[in-house]
Amino acid sequence: MSRLLSSLPDLTLTAIVDILIVAFVVYQALMVVRGTRAGHILLGILMMVSLYGLAVGAGLEAVRSLLSFIVPYLGLAIIVLFQSEIRRTLAGIGRKSWMSAGYRGSESIHEIVLAVERLAEDKTGALIVLERDIGLRTFVESGVRLESRISRDLLLSIFQPGLPLHDGAVIVQKDRIAAAACFLPLTTNPALSRNLGTRHRAAIGITEETDCLSVVVSEETGRISIAAFGELVPGISVAELVDHINRHFGLQRGHADHPDVPPAAESAPTGDQRPSEKVIQP
Q1: Phi, psi for residue 42 in degrees, rounded to 5
Q2: Pairing relation of β-strands 126-130 and 213-217?
Q3: Do 219 and 248 touch, CB atoms closer than 8 A?
Q4: Where are the beta strands (DSSP E) in the chain?
Q5: Fold of 99-266
Q6: Which of 81, 140, 164, 185 is least surrounded, with the fewest CB atoms within 10 Å of its CB?
């Protein structure tokens, strides 16, 4: 035992920092796949590697020969299977939240909230995506370019049923409506309710890949929902919508700090909205 302890390297300050960095990286990697389908895939890969090591140590030549054709390609398989998780993680690392803190003014929020409130009252389906730090240019190019100032009337006109721009999402960049009728990726999260329609799945899907905020109005019930970071909060009130936007973009909280927010934001939820209920990504 003493010989083993004497063979260990000295625990210096550099070694401690090295261990902490490795532990942090491993922890973050586990958090990326925790509770997702990728977690089960990673577990299967680790089991194959462990079985290969056991076969080599125990002299199981048949098993070792079989796995020797598979194990060398696991690195490529990890990149292919975890491409969405890797992309989302790298985007989060490269994101600089201080670069755009507080860029969205109360006037823009005021117009968006007014439009969403009216759309909810009329039970008109709508999907509005608010860009944060990660650019949405790819999705903007999939729709119809507008590059217009945010206004309640324009948003209401876009989502009028039967008009060409009704289907798809409106993408807001800073204080301008960048495009309408945009196509968004649908979430493939198997734990979500099957009752969620395409509009809600698109709202969640875009937030799984970027740090944007999605606002959804159901055309069946008029309920307002909001999605961020792969999570959906359905059935919120207009006041809660304002609060979510303020928190997501690092703006001041509370309506007293935003006199332009309409008084209706203090009222109860419209339609058949229920108290806020969070659907968390598994």
Answers
A1: -60, -40
A2: antiparallel
A3: no
A4: 126-130, 144-149, 169-173, 176-182, 213-217, 224-228, 231-236
A5: YojJ-like (1 (3.40.1700)
A6: 164
Opening angle at CA 216, ends 210 and 219, nearest 5: 150
Other CB atoms within 10 A of residue 51 CB: 16
Q: Helix, strand, coil shares of the chain as percentages rounded to 5?
A: 50, 15, 35
Q: Give dist(CA 112, CA 107) in Å, integer.
A: 9
- CATH 3.40.1700.10 intervals, the chain: 99-266
Low pLDDT (below 70) residues in the chain: 1-9, 32-40, 82, 84-106, 252-282
Hey, what amino acid is at 160? Q
Q: Which of 177, 107, 196, 166 is nearest to 136 (CA)?
A: 177
Are residues 91 and 210 in contact, defined by beta-carbon separation less than 8 angstroms? yes
**pLDDT tens for each residue of 43-71:** 777 888 888 888 888 888 888 888 888 77
